[in-house]
# Entry
Amino acid sequence: MQLTRRNVLGLTAGAAAFAVAGARVTPALASAEDAEKMIMEFTGGVMPGEGKVSLNTPEIAENGNTVPVSVSVESAMEGDDLVESVIIFADGNPSPAVATFHFTEMSGEALATTRIRLAKTQNVIAVAKMKDGSVFMDKKQVKVTIGGCGG
# Structure
């Protein structure tokens, strides 16, 4: 491809416009109300109870890019005591729903471990939906530090 003066001027103007527009763009973060709304959608309007769900997160995450999270649910994994699904929310991320895990009787136990990305210090919430329609929740706050400083 041959570059003409017109092409170079056009590319330069486009790059300058992109740089100026990019300087003003900030990521949109969800609010706690957005996460609450998504939880109610997941549960079908049922208010989650406490207990049964155990969420394990670090209290302080030095690197918000890879925060280890594990969730387990006390369940016999049969009949009405079957865990159908567990969803993890991070109420300060641009998209609060972070991960969803589905279980069957063949799963043996309702246990999942993953790593998530957190944009800032925020609550991590795990919600479990049981076969009988009951819903349980656990919530932990994770402090995300940047470069070793408190966040």
Q: What stands out?
A: Residues 5-24 form the longest helix (20 residues). The helical segments are 5-24, 32-43.
